[in-house]
Specification:
This protein is an alpha/beta fold. It has a single domain, classed as Aspartate Aminotransferase, domain 2 (3-Layer(aba) Sandwich), CATH 3.40.640.10. The protein is built from 9 helices and 9 strands. The chain has helices at 16-30, 37-50, 60-70, 88-95, 114-120, 138-146, 199-208, 232-241, 245-251, and strands at residues 53-57, 78-82, 99-103, 126-130, 151-157, 163-164, 167-168, 175-179, 192-196. The strands form 2 sheets. It has a 7-stranded mixed β-sheet with strand order 1-9-8-5-4-2-3, with helices on both faces. Strand 4, helix 6 and strand 5 (151-157) form a beta-alpha-beta unit. Helix 1 crosses helix 8 (232-241) and helix 2 packs parallel to helix 8 (232-241). 50% of the residues are buried.
Length: 252
């Protein structure tokens, strides 16, 4: 991705149809279609690559909703959003009942302006930084938002593999959401993930994606959650494609 424009190339990868046909009988025999070993292995693999904690989710927007909720965004809160971006960030903000504050992008670029965050941030709860066509200057945005106490949520979208100063996109803010449906890994269906370096954020995301259950005591709902769990077929295929990420990025 470049600031001047977006150049796309085929993502490539293993033969999805053959992989799915091979995975289905294995998963059926294991009788574990969600929150199973393939989801855990994918989370561990992506987490190792990003040097962060990863929570596999059913969709990109779902991951953004979890990230916003763990950032403390509630109904009626204001959230700074880039006016130039895809619809995922706006949809997630609407889902939690937040009021959007539309901010402009940097001159001549496609990513959120730190000066706009500073201008609009007073009284807001969080800012969503969308890496649209290029990686945004998250350190500058976080510094601008820090003056107002804003939590920083990154929307990496399909930009998995992007980095600034050797640090991966999605690891600069309080939490981030990655779109695994498009981009480089191309899940065979909807898929996303929350990325964070904070243990408590990870714990809450795992609980929220599973109807508020803690994964130990079934049907004990600690808070209002949702069904945002990645299934084992998707996780299995993503796990097979993850080692190919560097090769795919080099081709793109």
């Amino acid at each position: 991705m470049t600031a001047a424009g977006i150049r796309l190339a085929p993502a490539g990868g293993s033969d999805a149809a053959r992989s799915i046909l091979r995975l289905l009988p294995e998963i059926a025999r294991a009788e574990k279609v969600i929150l199973g070993p393939r989801s855990q292995a994918f989370e561990a693999g992506l987490g190792d690559r990003l040097a962060a904690r990863v929570v596999a989710c059913a969709s990109h927007v779902g991951a953004l909703v979890l990230a916003l909720r763990t950032a403390g965004v509630e109904r009626g809160d204001r959230v700074v959003l880039p006016a130039f971006a895809g619809g995922a960030a706006a949809a997630a903000a609407a889902a939690v009942g937040a009021e959007p504050l539309w901010a402009d992008v940097v001159p001549g670029g496609t990513t959120l302006s730190a000066a706009e965050v500073e201008r609009l941030g007073r009284g807001a709860r969080a800012v969503v930084v969308v890496h649209a066509g290029a990686m945004a200057d998250v350190p500058a945005i976080a510094a601008a938002g820090g003056a107002h106490g804003l939590r920083v949520v990154e929307d990496v979208g399909g930009g998995l593999g992007a980095a600034r100063a050797g640090r991966a996109a999605g690891t600069w803010g309080d939490a981030a959401a990655v779109d695994l449906t498009g981009g480089c890994l191309r899940a065979p269906g909807e898929a996303g993930a929350v990325v964070t370096r904070d243990a408590e954020t990870e714990r809450r995301c795992r609980m929220l994606r599973n109807h508020g259950q803690d994964g130990v005591h079934r049907f004990l709902h600690h808070e209002m959650g949702c069904n945002c769990r990645m299934d084992e077929v998707v996780a299995g295929l993503l796990g097979e494609r993850l080692p190919l990420l560097d090769e795919v990025l080099a081709r793109r």
